[in-house]
Design goal:
- This protein is of the alpha+beta class.
- The chain is built from two helices and four strands, in the order βαβαββ.
- Helix 1 (14-23) links the parallel strand 1 (2-6) and strand 2 (31-36).
- Helix 1 (14-23) runs parallel beside helix 2 (39-51).
Length: 72
Amino acid sequence: MEKSIDVRGLSCPLPVVQTKKALETLNNGDTLEVIVDNPTSIENISRFAKNAGYKVEKSESKGITVLKIYKY
């Protein structure tokens, strides 16, 4: 299952908090797509997810970054 959240326009720590809450609802094998537009939030979300043991992939297009976070 893939879930998506949009945290564009939000200031830290809200993007990380919303990502954490969304990850808690996933099962093993699920993916969370996080749509982000703030460089600080991109780094904070990526660092949080990696430190929590998730795999993170990043893609960028037209000033928008999509982080795909995989739960094993």
